[in-house]
Write a structure and sequence with these properties.
This is DUF1329 domain-containing protein. InterPro entries: DUF1329. The chain has 458 residues and is α+β, with helices and mostly antiparallel strands. It has 8 helices and 18 strands.
Length: 458
Amino acid sequence: MKTITKLQSGVLALSLSLLATSVLAAVSPEEAAKLGTTLTPLGAEKAGNADGSIPEWTGGLKPGAAPVDANGFLGNPFESDKPLFVITKANVDQYKDKLTPGQQALFQRYPDTYKIPVYQTRRTAAAPQTVYDAIKKSAVTTEAVNDGNGLKNFEQSHNYAFPIPKSGVEVVWNHETRYRGSNYTQLSVQATPQANGTYTIVEFKQDVAFPQLMSDVSPEKGANFLFYVKQEIVAPARLAGNVTLVHETIDQVKEPRLAWAYNAGQRRVRRAPQVAYDGPGTAADGMRTADNSDMYNGAPDRYNWKLIGKKEMYIPYNNYKLWSPKVKYADILKPGHINQDLTRYELHRVWEVEGTVKPGERHIYAKRHMYFDEDTWQLVEVDHYDGRGQLWRVGEGHQVLDYQQGAGTYAAQTLYDLIAGRYAVIGLTNEVKRASSFGQKFTMNDFTPAALRNAGIR
């Protein structure tokens, strides 16, 4: 038998180590070099499509793209744009190859009122140069672990864990790890209109902090955390003072999401494991789940994620008109669905991912069919199916780019219940005094159970 010398053993071990590294790394350095060349810095196809209806990406919107008012509300860079055409029940069959089953179902459910105004496609996605630089590092270092349910070698400041994804769960991770700007405080509202259009406004104040931007959180302490959120209900009076605190972990199988709730009536802080998966959404009248926030959030472990591929679709985009402080909530909230005359859709390429509940797991949504904008990685359309395979709820994320921060966000997130004829809308900011205040100097003292109690005391 041939013996292996100590030197040969060392060389073999090194070779195997290098091989393992190349296999486990997200992409090769050669692939990562495409970022910023043939691909945008965030990983989208830089070129337009064959007929030019989707243009080439040329850098997106920059700070100052439109006037910003005294309260920090961003102006509409495309104020003068008019729809190229409007999709209605009468002509929907002409365009159904570029619409989701959920969008088509909304035309069936509301044939007289639901419409999709389609505008010129404008590829506005942009982020700071520091984010672009960091993404190239993330592309070659970040690995999916625990069957895709966690991340290894991922630095939170790098964002977009897999800018060149190879699987469905990697696309989901890009949405969850996308750049959101600096620490901020946001005021927003939620409504769940009845079938006849009547509604009650629920006002929220939300503080969001990122471990890499907090002076008292070391890299070791914050290694498995994406962000910290403290959400307080401000109105109506019957709910005011209830506060929820979430420490969002990266690998939630290894270390589940940490959540607490303060009940103003009981004046007690309790652990809140229901703030996850299909637990009820806060003050949402049963119209959404906890993981419907941000279109989808939380651990991906209850689903098998299938990457179907890319396609061109009409999706909500550049919804600055819907986001405007000139628009009132009464203008937006209508029976059955929001006022579609205020919305804007454009033709864009999306990543299509299907999530199916794993055998032995449970969730009220047995299947989620998801569509992610290739330029921003934001989730913009979701079809939710029940256990019988019936299309149940249709989610739409009316995205905008906060061009001052270089971060994507939503003017509104809607979730339509096709069976009940009702919907939930979250994230409206039109009538608040100031939607978001970035650059907050938060510390961990702001995100403890004690801070939760203090926030709720009135």
